[in-house]
Amino acid sequence: MTSAARGRPAYFVGPWDLNRDLSCVPQRPADGTVVLVESRAKSQALPYHRKKLVFVLSAMHHFAAELREAGFDVHIVNASTYVEGIASHVESHGSTCIVALEPREWGLSRAFDQAVADNRWGVPLDRHDDGGPGGHFLLSRAEFRDWAGDRARLRMADFYKWMRIRTGYLVKNKKPEGGKWSFDAENRKPARGHSPPEIPRCEPDAMTRQQIDRVAKWKGHWGEAEGFSWPVTRQDALRHLDIFFEHRAESFGRFQDAMLAEQPFMWHSLISPAMNVGLLSPREVCERIVNEYASGRIPLASAEGLLRQILGWREFIRGVYWRRMPELRAANLLDAQRPLPDFFWEPDATDMTCLRESIGQVKETGYAHHIQRLMVQGNFALLAGVHPLEISHWFWAAFVDAYEWVELPNVHGMAVFADDTFTTKPYAASGKYIQRMSDYCGRCPYDVKARHGAGACPFNPLFWSFMHRHRDRLEANPRLRMLYRNWDRLDDREQKNTLESAEKLLSSYVPAEPAWRFRDDEG
Ligand SMILES: Cc1cc2nc3c(=O)[nH]c(=O)nc-3n(C[C@H](O)[C@H](O)[C@H](O)COP(=O)(O)OP(=O)(O)OC[C@H]3O[C@@H](n4cnc5c(N)ncnc54)[C@H](O)[C@@H]3O)c2cc1C
Ligand code: SF4
Fold first, then answer.
1. pLDDT less than 70: residues of the chain
2. For residue 234, is it within any domain?
3. For 41, which of 158, 381, 451, 484 is 20 to 30 Å away at the CA?
4. What global pTM score does this model have?
5. For ligand 1, which residues put their CB under 6 angstroms from it?
């Protein structure tokens, strides 16, 4: 190390901070050293999908190489934790201070607080907001807090409208382009008979290959490292974004909620892994959407649908996470207590086609799209009364794009209605919804029209038993009243058979072996 390297700030670039526009990355090599940490505790905290580990490690190593090539003094430290990795760098480089973004997750945020309280680093920590200019999100944490104010309930639709006006995206004179803030109602077409365009693989280079070989040997993780093909550099992420806009964005809106067996990616953008580690910024993606619409390359329904996901849902979910932590983790509004069934980890253990196919696809790729997560996997956990943390841990570990800040509000707030900060009713659905939106049921041994009995689609008795169990809480909701009226029209025998079918099913599920360990805050 040159003497010039001593006595300068250390810039901590977390594995999710891989973008040169972030304020935790120095502008010029002379500004300070860069430290990236491979935290052993973090990699072992959950049984992460091996493709997720390859993704994060490879993206990190590629980013370090890019910075080195540009003349920066970059160090990758393998350490027991992030805090210890930073400490060893500060010590060996005589750093004057540490520059970092606010950690994305609760556990690391607390670890940073503790390190500061204990003076573990011996130098000041300059913590920057992870949102707003130089951050990962369009909004700073304070801006979201100001918007939310003291409202007990938050509504995504209100937030989204506010964000549209604030940014001016697809807005003219404070009015929404096309006269409506949301085209969601037009975006619910099934895709039977349509084939999504093929997505070219991103072949692993030597650096990614190295991480695949490394992670393949790690014990206690899910899925395979082999077959990895996610973009791990900004250049590749941008190329894949171009491919999305060229071939899939036009139909994104229309088929946003559709599911087809053997088509894991449909017309979705697949940008969440890259965006969540900073390879793409949400602002640039939003601007690209607006430009694609303005130049007539994508219809308004697709442009608005996409914008709502990124400008609306993504920003909103992150705001909810920080507002509701740490209580959000413990939330269990419906007092759901059942264990997660084994087939979430071993999809071949179920003959329910929708679950076997969609979970099998996650095991293979680390990805499922939103409706598979919400209306198949999450919906099943909701109806079966799986404990919220059990299903949340699964979502956190199993997906290549998963981080607690985004999975937890989605799982607890949306999928299993463990927290009602931003939802007024559960997203509960019987087999009929899955039949309408997919081609799974035609390939399934169960009868999607039957309400009970050994051959009935399990989602049906489970749905009615769920509605019956939670009648006191849900009946007052005007959007659910009709359902209860339908239930009340059934004769006693039909109701009894349905509830008995549900009980039989619930007692037949084999709990997932507690082979996996979850240490939420370690790292
Ligand atoms: C139970 C459940 C768990 C989820 N866990 C995660 C997770 O761990 N990580 C994650 O990034 N997303 C999560 N989501 C949100 C969403 O399903 C994924 O962002 C999306 O499927 C990623 O695929 P895509 O990039 O092809 O998305 P597209 O469908 O193409 O959407 C574009 C982008 O919009 C954003 N977006 C859309 N919906 C949401 C949402 N509800 N919350 C936050 N961002 C959203 C994402 O950044 C996404 O990349 C979860 C949703 C549910 C219902
Ligand atoms: S019949 Fe039921 S279990 Fe089978 S695929 Fe359809 S919804 Fe899923």
1. 1-5, 514-515
2. no
3. 381
4. 0.96
5. 268-272, 275-276, 309-310, 313-314, 317, 369-370, 373-374, 378, 395, 399, 401-402, 406-407, 410-411, 414-415
